[in-house]
UniProtKB/TrEMBL annotation:
It holds the Pfam family LRR_8. One of its GO terms (cellular component) is cytoplasm. SUPFAM superfamilies: Outer arm dynein light chain 1. PANTHER family: PTHR48051, RAS SUPPRESSOR PROTEIN 1 (PTHR48051:SF1). The lineage of its organism: Eukaryota, Metazoa, Chordata, Craniata, Vertebrata. It comes from the Eukaryota. Keywords: Leucine-rich repeat, Repeat. This is Leucine-rich repeat and calponin homology domain-containing protein 1. The keyword Repeat applies.
Amino acid sequence: MNYLSKNRLTDVPSEVCNLVALETLNLYHNCIRTIPDSIISLQSLTSLNLRHISHLACAAHLLSHSLNT
């Protein structure tokens, strides 16, 4: 489990996408504007918490890929 919540992050740290066994990622209450395409490499990810991120522009193709997997 990776808690990166409430850190005023503006980007998802690139190192996170190397954690291929990561199952839960909590990014809530940050200032993240985009989710990187490399998040798809997190094949074990089952929970992604993006609550209370007001300016997030997430690519629709990432969401559709994760929902179809």
